[in-house]
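Please supply some protein, with C-alpha cells.
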Amino acid sequence: MGEGRRIYSREFKEDAVRLLESGTKSGYQIEEDLGIGRGVVYRWRRAMRQEHENGLRAFPGNGNPRDEELGRLRKELAEMTEERDILRKAVAIFSKDEAMKFGFMAKHQGIHSVEKMARTFGVSRSGYYAWRGRPGK
C-alpha cells in the first residue's frame, strides 16, 4: 500500500530551500537526504519567490480566516509604511523652509497632533511653539 501524502511544516520547507540556495548540495541530493520527492524543493523555492514578489502566501496549508486577515493587514501596513516614507522624503525636498512646515502645523493643529506633525517634518515641538509666539504668526 502506498503512503498517504506527507505534510511538511513551513519551517521544514524554508530550511530545505535555504539549503538549496546555499549551493552546498544539489536539489537532487537535498531531496534524497530529506526523503522528499523529485522536484519538490524546486517547487517550494518557486512558491517562496512568488510569495516575495506577489505577496501571495507560500505554503498556505489549511490556515484559518485569522491568518488571512493577518496577512492582509501586514501587506496593508507595508504599503502604508512605504507611502509614509515617500511623503517624508517629499516633505524634506519641497519644504526646506521651516516657516512652511510651521505654517502647515499651525493650520492643521486641530486635525493632527503637534507631536506627530513635528516628528513627521523633522522639527521640534519647542521650535514650533517658539515660532508661533513670534509677532505676526
Remarks:
- The mean pLDDT is 83.
- DSSP finds seven helices and no strands in the chain.
- Residues 65-94 form the longest helix (30 residues).
- The helical segments are 10-22, 27-34, 40-54, 65-94, 98-107, 114-121, 125-132.
